[in-house]
Amino acid sequence: MTSGAPYGHRKVAVAGVALSDCGRVDDATPYALHAQAARRALADSGLDRSAIDGFASAGLGTLAPIEVAEYLGLRPTWVDSTSVGGATWEVLAAHAAEAVAAGHADAVLLVYGSTARADIKAGRRTSNLSFGARGPLQFEVPYGHTLIAKYAMAARRHMHQYGTTLEQLAQVAVQTRANAAANPEAMYRDPITVDDVLGGPVIADPFTMLHCCIRSDGGCAVLLVAEDRVQDLAKPPIWVLGSGTAVSHTTMSQWDDFTVSPAAVSGRQAFARAGVRPDEIDLAELYDAFTYMTLVTLEDLGFCAKGEGGAFVGTGRLLRDAELPVNTDGGGLSACHPGMRGLFLLVEAVRQLRGEAGPDRQVHRADGALPRLAVASGTGGWFCSSGTVVLGRE
Fold this sequence. Notes:
The structure is a single chain. About 55% of the residues are buried. Helix 6 packs across helix 9. The protein is built from twelve helices and eleven strands. Helix content is about 30%, strand content about 15%. With about 400 residues, the chain is of the alpha/beta class.
């Protein structure tokens, strides 16, 4: 790998990252969390707000991202609001990097915020059983085929086809919680065991409660800039080396193989465009709404062969100081999950590459050096979409 490998015509760097207040936030609106995260990311970058000429946001407002940009006092000349579920932010990051590389924008701010937990607690919204009953979904909704049921069906297929066990799936939750234990910003930090996971209330067979992501409040922001702005940054840049995007299906009947996610396509694209191999990656931040998502994404990104995910995760490989640290902040299973979590993956990857994660949870290479390469891969819907981004430092 060469530092800042060309991405299109201009190199693209991550200039600033930040989280808003996360976890239990009962006294803020989603707009306020957007603003808080954006201000913190700008401060992290050392740039002034006037440098921003591109903006990407999704999930809030009638005319996203226009409403959020207005709230933040921005008048961008490049915008995007592509919304594909949990993969939204890796897809938006790919679009933003392409825009910066092509000269369509010099500094693009990606920002997200949600009070999903607080809204339910306050009765401002209820849990949704489905995403709607029109179009192709009308053929599944009458049968109670909820989002979690679709993931559960896919997990059962993997278990049937490859012998993956409940204990192996539970190991994903156990190791992710162990990573969260060292993260003061994580919502849940107490250790759990495989027996704790298996003994919990069943949500959708085979998933018990601890197989499923938590519900939290929170927001975050990422600022991407062109290479000619790097000298103005407060911190060394983290380079966007390559990305890939893919979509698969909406209805389960159109999913060719329940054991293969669209990350098999987006990951292959991202690694090829970055000019790196999976075995060169030092850490992975993966969307983990359910334990099975982590397992199958590891397979599809090429960290292990198809069908070997159960054995791979069952040996402690996901821990911060292990062979392939995964979801080093505690992921959506333990740290935070305020809806479309994909932007949080990029924030954590950048912090780790910078060496800013803190003494108790900073990832190091075998020789003691800081990590050089990270991958963030988001999954949307019920494995309907995927976006993968490879990041690297000097």
